[in-house]
Amino acid sequence: MNLPEIVIRQPKRHGPRLVWIAALTAVAVVALWALFVLARHAFEDDAAKHQRELNELLAVRKTLTQSLRETRDENENLRDELAFLRQSQQVEAEAAQLLRGELERLQSELLELREQLAFYRGIVSPDVVKAGVRVHSLKLAPTGVTPQFRYELVLVQAVRRQGNAAGQFKMVVEGVRDGRPLSVSWPELSEGRDELPKYGFQYFQEFDGLIKLPAGFKPQRIRVQLIPDGSAPAVEEVLEWRRSVLAAEGPDRSP
């Protein structure tokens, strides 16, 4: 009977290798711990930095919000002030316009009063006591229908003269046509009316009507002939055409 063979082997020696593994493991653990510590410090530093930046941004935002609120309030105040100024300006403009209109009205009334005063002074003036009937004014205005004009004639008599003045009047216009002198008589001016206008008054009388000039005629003067009834001599006054037209346009109304 054969007995089994027992072989006893000696274990291998791994001592130095295990030491190196343990050393490397320790170094790795230390390195990892160092990295962890560094990373934590870096994170804490970044977090603190970011917190400071965030705080600064929040402060800036607060400042900007306050500035924006103040700017809005200031803009609102400026809008209110602008609206007030515009309203005040409008009121002042309307008041100025009313004042200008009132001033123009007063100036117009003053001019009319001056004209009336001059008119009545001309009637009652001692210098015209013996003047009899005369032409106070003659105004000629275009009607828009060439060559037609509207005339406004005022005849006066001195207040101190007794009785009414009565008679007739006619007008003759002198000028040039085709380079030659030409006189246009009353029948032609009045378009065929041979009958002369009549006057009859104590102090003054106003007349108005239409006269028509020949085509191509350039008027220069107008003669107004007053023919009293009875034996009194006729009176003739010569007026510049241009001055009569300007008188119809109106004098300067400045005081």
Structure explained in plain terms:
By secondary structure, this protein is α+β, with helices and mostly antiparallel strands. The chain folds into two domains: 16-124; 128-249, Sandwich (Immunoglobulin-like), CATH 2.60.40.2420. It contains three helices and eight strands, in the order H-E-E-E-E-H-E-E-E-E-H. The protein has helices spanning 15-124, 186-189, 241-249; strands spanning 134-142, 148-156, 165-177, 180-184, 198-201, 204-212, 217-228, 235-240. Strands 3, 4, 5, 7 and 8 form a five-stranded antiparallel beta sheet that branches. A three-stranded antiparallel beta sheet has the order 1-2-6. The radius of gyration is 59 Å and the shape is rod-shaped. The mean pLDDT is 83.
Q: What is the number of helices?
A: 3
Which parts are unreliable, with pLDDT below 50 for 5 consecutive residues or more?
none
Oligomer: single chain
What is the CATH C level class of the largest domain, in words?
A: Mainly Beta
The main pleated sheet reads as: 5 strands, antiparallel
Helix content: 40-55%
CATH level-two architecture of the largest domain = Sandwich
Strand content of the residues, in percent?
A: 25-35%
Examine the coordinates and then state which fold CATH places here, giving the name of the CATH topology of the largest domain.
Immunoglobulin-like
Give the integer mean of the pLDDT values: 83
Query: Can you tell me the overall shape?
Result: rod-shaped
